[in-house]
Queue: 3 jobs
Job 1
Amino acid sequence: MFETIELNISGAVATITLNRPERLNAFNKTMHREFQQALETVANNDFLRAMVIAGAGRGFCAGQDLGERQPEKGKKPDLGETLEVGYNKSLRLLHALKIPVIAAVNGVAAGAGAGIALNCDLVLAKKSARFIQAFSNIGLIPDSGMTWHLPRLIGSARARAITMLGIPVDAETAEQWGMIYRCVDDADFDQALTELVDNVANRPTIALGLIKDAMQKSWNNSLDEQLDLERDYQRIAGLTLDFAEGVTAFSEKRPPVFEGR
């Protein structure tokens, strides 16, 4: 079905694997289109409870394939248009998903590749992985939401330094700075990912989606607005079967069995 990605649905979990390992999974026009199609497929599947984005081979994603950035003779490229129909559309689709999204960073995540990872809800990385924002090395600015995410995640001073100077951030440092959720030894990565996905996929899916949306909206809300939003979302969560199961399980002193409903 796809040339540059793989979409696998197993039970309640969807996995999108970026699959151009010979190019460190760098995006070309075909991958942009197929990634968006896969995200739309996931969004339209009401039975899914979690999604993973992974990279094939030795890296997660090297960002944009610069081989497609060579302008025609006498013409200048419109990189803004490339962003609008490519990464920006993809990231809006990603953020609109109502299920948790896990980035499984198995190696280098550079440029927009790091942007895709940090736009996910949870980032699990191998200790050997690195996060690189080297746009300034070729006269560009960070994109894919990185000028928005990085100052909020690691502070303005560090965000400016790693983007202006193109400094790579190893996974252990990224965890210490709060850029990512967790890094693990390379040998333990697959097991840690399986455990994390199983944990997320068996939690109350509607509540997790509401948490995700509430935290996204908190950046633009006043405290009063956020209190109102929490009230409204708690009302929704309180009407779910998972809430009823959670209360019953607590009363019966047993682990809850959530169904995502």
Note: The two ends are 31 Å apart (CA to CA).
Job 2
Amino acid sequence: MPEGRRVFPELSVEENLRVGAYLVANRAKVRDMLGDVYARFPRLAERRRQLAGTLSGGEQQMLAFGRAMMAQPKLLMLDEPSLGLAPRMVDEVMRSIRLFRESGVTIFLVEQNANLALRLADRAYVMETGQITMTGSGAQLLADERVRASYLGAKAPSHMGVARSQ
């Protein structure tokens, strides 16, 4: 999923979703996959005939996730999925990423919201000027005082424990 959602604005929501399933020849399977996307994103079901270009930014992000689901990927690469979204929609995007992960899809996430990314990550890398400067589990980096001071705007208290959000 590229940064900026990149939906096909002149196609309907459903047509955009079907583009994601272009390699699936079995029509019944495509119909079932559409049902799965609509179950996960009921708002898309409500707007299935609406042109994608007329959706809100958050709805377009849901559509981009739905289109990715239709491709049944083993690896999903996400570039700044929270960019430009309202906080409520960011929560929805993160829920979607968790659902993909729980379904067995490997997620490669590039995200400037370090707090958000580290809470999701099994493995994380910090890059500065194109160089990897730190690596560890998301929880480890979230608890690292240097990461907290540089990227999260907070100093880690000396008694801070490591917690994983699921």
Note: Residues 77 and 103 are 15 Å apart (CA to CA).
Job 3
Amino acid sequence: MSEVASPVSTEALSRFVAQALVSEGVPEDDATKVSGLMVEADIFGYGTHGVFRLRQYLARLRGGGCNQRAQIKIACETAATAVIDGDNGLGHLAMSAARDLAMVKASEAGIGWVGVRRGNHAGPLALYVRPQAEAGMIGMAAAVGSANHVPPFGGTDLLLGTNPIAISAPSGGPDPFVLDMATTVAAMGKIKVLAQQGAAMPEGWMVGRDGEPLTDPTRRSEGFMLPIGGPKGFGLSVAIGLLAGVLNGAAFGSDVVDFTSDTSSETNTGQFVMALNVAAFGMGDRFAETAKRVFDEMRASAPLPGHEPVRMPGEGKGAAAAERRRIGLALNPALRRDLEALAQEQGIEAPFGPPARS
């Protein structure tokens, strides 16, 4: 008989993550909030930016690079804008505060734009734009990557990160439009997952300093990540650096600290969250109705030979998330082993029992 790893319940996984954070000095309320967001990332299919990141967060808390007891505060504010000081705490705390404040401002002023400085890695940006769309607003968020893996186009010095951006909007359907993407061909999280699993990278994700394809994810420090669209991706990454980093008094360029290799320095990660109230443009429900009509036209487009039918960004996420909440999360074996090791290291109980036999 073979052993089959059973899914872990989302509630048990959330409790485990919260206990791990508390074991490193994070207050229980903050740990519960962060663990909920981390597991939600896995629930919605962003596994590279969810519980997989727990070991990194614990290392930074332990090393002094992340403040266990951060006091989030508003550094400056107008009717439609604000900057939040994350006090070098867990990034999810500052970004969720920025998202909520942006939505309040949008409901009152039509738009809310809230920047973050002295933040940290906060998981997938989708967490901070989906609620806007579910509330009938347009959302946007972006961040300066938590390490530099990309040179300026045509250069060789690592001065840019994956600098992701996310945009959401009501769609008139069961799932809002949610685009969450890195400005590199692949997110670094995907490369780290492949390294953990002992798998190779596809060609085109990274190149070595000799310009040749690099496919071994364990050698990622020897090469460069590639921007989407060549100079266009480079330009978009720089624009995000200006809006999420420079504008907020946060790190950009050579000031960026590698949050994995350096666990003791403050990263001063910069991000922003925007909420746009479509009612302020006189659209009301017509925005979602028009979006639905156009999206239906796109889905009806005959697929190219060998291609699946057209799908919109974010489509199917809600149903998949509901199923994961119902049956639990199927963690890949490498992540499961890492969480078991973390449980032993932190002196807490693992979130799953022994494998079932088939």
Note: The chain has ten helices and twelve strands.
